[in-house]
Design goal:
The protein is an alpha/beta fold. It has 22 helices and 17 strands. It comes from Araneus ventricosus (Orbweaver spider).
């Protein structure tokens, strides 16, 4: 302080503090996040009723935009209401954007402190409506966000070719983050493979020449990365906070019988139905009843000709909690719906599930839209465990338990998946984990793999021969010949990316994914993999709230499985 001739007022100094609140942010050694007061203001802000209230809301949210990934694209439906000549209609898209922003702020987005000693990475991306940039610092093996930047594109900018939009994103990102990047060397990460070629063309539009002239003042290396590896995509698009391993399968008590019963009594619709049942209304009895064991309102639904299934009636004030639990593994609409309909009911259930899944932020970020392709149904094998397909996913970012790859094993008959984190792809590692798999589920007759070196080494060949397992290989340069695993890998990557809250926490999220994947109905078999593999359903979090009414003896259970 003396060196720079600065003085401090003792009355305004706070000593021995681990964090302070300054200009609306809570600042600590770990970074800074919105203060509790500001979080309350955002979450309590009413839904805007006119353009003036929209402008007030956007003015408040703009204060936090540097903490929020792709802010401009998220709030675009709301911003459109402020444009001249646009009638004020608060649409469903506006409401979804409003809810997303509230949830983001409620989760306290935290930005790490800038550190000159750590290498800097800038990743950019551009869509048809907006562009974004993320400034990251690398600390050890981890990447941490320092600041987010996003901008909506004007009508003329939206007409740019895609490669020019990518270059525009780089120009705007560097321009916005000049205070961090000027005078420092940094790494520019982009998934636009032809960008370097276009930047070196002799003939360029004048506007592109101005961008390139500006970029010449900065020192950087351009590194091309695949779209799935871009920090603005896949695993690195996750939140940075740690997740508690012990709470991996805990979904809260919202769907406990006691809480459902309480919410049913408070909901106007369900309480009215229960009142009619107590008054012994004959029409009500045809569809509903109160379970004598739990006291819950139940809904009767026909399944087949004579079978009647009883479902718990979820009141409207619990629908969102039920959707959150069912969609926790971030599967698609049909699988999420199947999770719920096995046990619960409420009017308009499928429409609610469809709307919730299609507007899930994590799914939109980590799952690209695809055209539906009709596949022929593969030939089934005679029994579970007879024919296995194996492969390896990776190399992945090193996990918290020092794993770099995933060994995947899929049973062709049941589609049952085993996904095992492994540190390397040596023959000894693969054999060790296959032995562990065989000790639990028995020896297969056939194993299908690709032609990777680690799957056809002498050790692996001798291992299969010693166990009399026939090794089959998929076609070279045609991964679709092992299509079952290729599709499984796609779902695995997308779901784990959506579940995980930290880049290096994927091995923990993998456990959660496997549980739900093996207990969701498969589109080909129309059964869950666990049902075909074990002969029974396995409990998942959304089904784990039951209080058992009876315990089945072993002989009865065995008879049912054999039947």
């Amino acid at each position: 302080l003396a060196k720079f001739n600065l003085t401090l007022d003792p009355n305004k100094i706070q000593n021995c503090k681990t964090n302070i609140t300054y200009l609306g942010f809570n600042i600590s050694a770990n970074g800074y996040a919105p203060s509790e007061d500001n979080i309350q203001k955002v979450t309590k802000f009413p839904v805007p009723q006119n353009v003036k209230q929209v402008q007030s809301y956007l003015g408040m949210m703009n204060y936090f935009r540097h903490l929020i990934f792709n802010y401009a694209e998220v709030v675009e439906p709301i911003v459109n209401l402020t444009r001249k000549g646009t009638p004020f209609v608060w649409s469903e898209n506006c409401q979804d954007a409003f809810k997303v922003m509230q949830e983001i702020i409620l989760n306290k987005p935290t930005i790490k402190n800038y550190d000159e000693s750590k290498p800097l990475f800038l990743t950019t991306d551009a869509s048809k409506v907006a562009l974004c940039a993320i400034l990251l610092k690398k600390d050890g093996e981890n990447f941490y966000p320092i600041e987010f930047f996003s901008k909506q594109l004007s009508p003329s900018e939206r007409n740019y070719p895609s490669i020019r939009r990518e270059l525009f994103a780089i120009f705007m990102g560097i321009k916005h983050l000049t205070e961090y990047l000027y005078g420092r060397h940094f790494y520019l990460l982009t998934d636009a493979k032809s960008l370097t070629y276009h930047m070196n063309l002799d003939k360029q539009p004048d506007i592109v020449k101005r961008w390139l002239l500006y970029l010449q003042d900065f020192s950087y290396n351009i590194d091309h990365i695949k779209g799935c590896d871009n920090p603005a995509d896949f695993l690195s698009r996750m939140q940075i906070e740690d997740v508690e391993v012990n709470n991996l399968f805990h979904m809260g008590d919202q769907l406990s019988h006691s809480n459902i019963k309480l919410c049913q009594s408070m909901d106007s619709c369900t309480s009215e139905i229960m009142k009619r049942i107590e008054e012994k209304d004959s029409k009500t009895f045809q569809k509903y009843f109160i379970d004598s064991y739990t006291g819950l309102l139940m809904f009767k639904i026909k399944s087949g000709k004579d079978q009647i299934l009883n479902k718990i009636y979820i009141p409207r004030n619990l629908v969102r909690d039920c959707l959150l639990v069912a969609h926790a593994p971030h599967f698609g609409v049909q699988k999420t719906y199947d999770f719920i309909k096995n046990k619960y009911f409420w009017p308009g259930m499928y429409a609610d599930v469809k709307n919730f899944c299609e507007n899930c932020c994590n799914c939109m970020q980590n799952k690209p839209k695809r055209k539906t392709i009709t596949h022929s149904i593969p030939k089934h094998h005679l029994a579970p465990g007879e024919f296995l397909a194996i492969d390896i996913v990776g190399k992945l970012p090193r996990s918290v338990d020092n794993q770099n790859y995933i060994l995947t094993i899929v049973d062709h008959y049941s589609r049952y998946l085993e996904a095992i984190p492994i540190p390397n792809t040596t023959s000894n590692t693969i054999i060790r984990h296959l032995n562990y798999y065989f000790s639990r589920f028995g020896l297969p007759k056939y194993i299908l793999s690709d032609n990777a070196t680690y799957f056809k080494s002498d050790e692996i060949v001798n291992f299969y021969e010693s166990l009399r397992i026939e090794h089959r290989k998929s076609s070279i340069y045609y991964p679709k010949s092992n299509g079952l695993l290729e599709r499984t890998h796609r779902v695995l990557k997308e779901s784990v990316a959506s579940i995980s809250q930290k880049v290096h926490d994927w091995s923990t999220s993998l456990l959660f994914f496997k549980l739900h994947y093996n207990n969701s109905k498969h589109v080909v078999t129309q059964y869950t993999p666990a049902e075909l593999f074990f002969g029974r359903r396995v409990n998942i979090p959304i089904h784990s709230y039951d209080d058992p009414k009876y315990v089945e003896d072993s002989s009865t259970y065995l008879y049912k499985v054999q039947k």
